[in-house]
Amino acid sequence: MTLVAVLIANPARPAITDAVLAETRRVLGTAHQPRILHGEVAAEVMLAGEAGSAPSLTERLRAALGDEPIDVAVLPADAHRRKRLFLADMDSTMIEQECIDELADQVGLKAHVSAITERAMRGEIAFEPALRERVALLKDLPVGAIDRLIAERITLTPGGRTLVRTLRAHGAYTCLVSGGFTLFTGPVGDKLGFEENRANRLTLAGEKLAGTVEEPIVGKAAKRETLIELRERFHLAPAETLAVGDGANDLDMLGEAGLGVAFRAKPAVAAAAQVRIEHGDLTALLYLQGFAAAEFVG
């Protein structure tokens, strides 16, 4: 079968030079000429090989490029390369913050809550009880604080809006699925252009947080189940699905997807995912599917 090696740099730090492309072709033993997707930011090279050899080829190429700030992935170049269903985590993936940590900052507990969040995202403690523990610390916080946080502190990860809009323009269904809260995923999902969002619901006591979250909690299992539900709703093959995330609660979703991408992820997640992106922005997910920058919808 035909494989494709995709090389991606950060748009702010182009690094895919002619020398890098020549080394890529040498390491992979391919005579195919590179296809430039975006200047020195993204390119791909076709090669012959079996799907099972893609992980080892990825590692070989990554080792050959050494410290170059370039993300590498070798993938099948098949009919399902461009995906028709996209699921994305929100915190530290589609946005640059952890919303619960920012909420905790409003009550002077950011350092404490951030430490719990970090352990949960690394998979060192179970997600569900860790979420209940952190939410309890937010009791009596005014709901209005959330709107202020979204306006003043929450920033979209570069490339995210372009990623979602381009996928939708090419017929993919997009869903933001988060272990965070609907009070954030609603506005954030709208800003990014997602068609649907799913997350946990905070319990309210009047105009304040009650310190509890509605059950069942949207955690690792629920994210995977959402992917399966939507895949079946749209009668898609597993290979037609794409998911991205950074934390341990994303692992099952990434594993279920036809293409699971760990984006600037915790070590265990990066090690387990089919593809890891450490240098590129979120448009990297478009390059992985063979989109050239000229096809992007801003």
UniProtKB/TrEMBL annotation:
Task: List required co-factors.
Answer: Mg(2+)
This protein is called Phosphoserine phosphatase
Q: Which domain of life is it from?
A: Bacteria
The gene that this protein is the product of is serB
Pathway(s) of this molecule: Amino-acid biosynthesis; L-serine biosynthesis; L-serine from 3-phospho-D-glycerate: step 3/3
Q: Which Gene3D superfamilies match?
A: HAD superfamily/HAD-like (3.40.50.1000)
Its source organism is Methylobacterium symbioticum
User: Which Pfam family would be a valid example here?
Assistant: HAD
Which keywords appear in this protein's UniProt record, sorted alphabetically?
Answer: Amino-acid biosynthesis, Hydrolase, Magnesium, Metal-binding, Serine biosynthesis
Amino-acid biosynthesis: present as a keyword of the record? yes
GO cellular component labels: cytoplasm
Report the EC code(s) recorded for this entry: 3.1.3.3
A Gene Ontology annotation in the biological process aspect, one of them, is: L-serine biosynthetic process
- Alphabetized InterPro entries for the sequence: HAD-like_SerB, HAD-like_sf, HAD_sf, PSP
- Catalytic reactions on record: O-phospho-D-serine + H2O = D-serine + phosphate; O-phospho-L-serine + H2O = L-serine + phosphate
Per UniProt, the enzyme's principal EC class comes to hydrolase
The entry assigns this protein to a family as follows: Belongs to the HAD-like hydrolase superfamily. SerB family.
An example Gene Ontology molecular-function term: magnesium ion binding
| Active-site residues from the entry | D89, D91
